[in-house]
Design brief:
alpha+beta, 3 domains, five-stranded mixed sheet, four-stranded mixed sheet, about 25% helix, elongated
Length: about 425
Amino acid sequence: MTLVENEKMPDPIIPRSAGKVPSGIAWWGQRISSDQFDTIPITDQVLIRDILQSLSIEPFEGDRLGTKIIIPFIDEQQLLIKHEINPDENKPWESNVVDYIRVGMQRWYAPRLANKKYHYGKYLDGHVNGERLEKDDFLPVFLELQLMYNAAALGVNSNRYFVNDIQIRNYFEHNKVNNAGRVAYRKFTMKELDMLAPLNGPSPFTCVNKKNLYVEQNAPIMAYARRPGMIVNYETDGEWCNGLGATEENEYLVAIFVPNSNTKLLNPENDVVDLEGYLRKSEMADHTTWTDLIIKSKPFDIVEKIRAQARRKIKASFENKKEVKEKQSLNKLARNVGKMLLPPTGFGRRASSRNRAGGPKPPTIRGNRGNSFTIVSQKYLETGTLEVHFQLKLAKKCCCFYNRVIYCFRRWENLSNGLGISR
């Protein structure tokens, strides 16, 4: 038998032990001996029947096998936890134990719950008070997570989600493109997540009990799971999300990594023979994260490589090639404008060619379509600001080049520690 409670309460039932960090979990059974407090599970079938009968519960008999978890004599209101992570959002499931359990099952078992396409065995047929939890009852973000899990686990082509292979070299028996698994992800709108009127559903941050790190934008949400189909954790920052950036306030980036659990390690050791065994052993005792291992005195970095590659694949999928090209072109233009405006290298040691008699030919930046930008003259005013006269030639009905030049001026104005530019 076990007791689980909030160890932060001022009057916990579980006594505190000196030198030990309270966990809120304690186990009871039968004493090993009368002079010891350590306990072991009860295996006496007569005593077990007496306990079950006192609770009006039928035991498993004959061909019926399974595990029964019994939580008797609960105070429903004390059992409910009020999460204040996103206090402004309505969480109706936190006022009713049945709804609380139903949402909790979705949050942690979305990949396996009512999922007849589950890849690694029997799916989870969940019931609360005898009522089956169907996929039609899922909150939208958890249904999407299940569908993304299936796309990643089965490797199916999807028009709805991005699905990318994750390959790790030098650790596994083969170098198949998906030897470490796959990551599936998508940006969802508020409408797709039933957040708009008249439904006014909760945000995915509220559903997964995570705080959004931004005020007017949304942090990415990254989930990961092993073969049992339980989500280990939801991450919104840290090593799973570094560099992904935020999305606009009306959309949410949700992703899930699904490992190829059967991939064999090159150098197995005892219970670590495949990726599943590695990840299982890498989990902390509370099963909330993965950390890399040291096997046979050799440090492994499989988890770090998975995280880094998943981030890279996600980031690359949302980078618009045209935007990248324009950004590179804009940066080049900004550098050239900067070279024109700022003093040359070695300024102050010797006279620059710009100040010699006669002066050099004015530098010119030329665009691709007959556009050009030339600085005609520049001088410092008594106020300390820099006055620049320039000539801009544009192709007919073309203002893009002009806008870029003006943008570069503004950037240099903001970044040059008080250097004013008069146009």
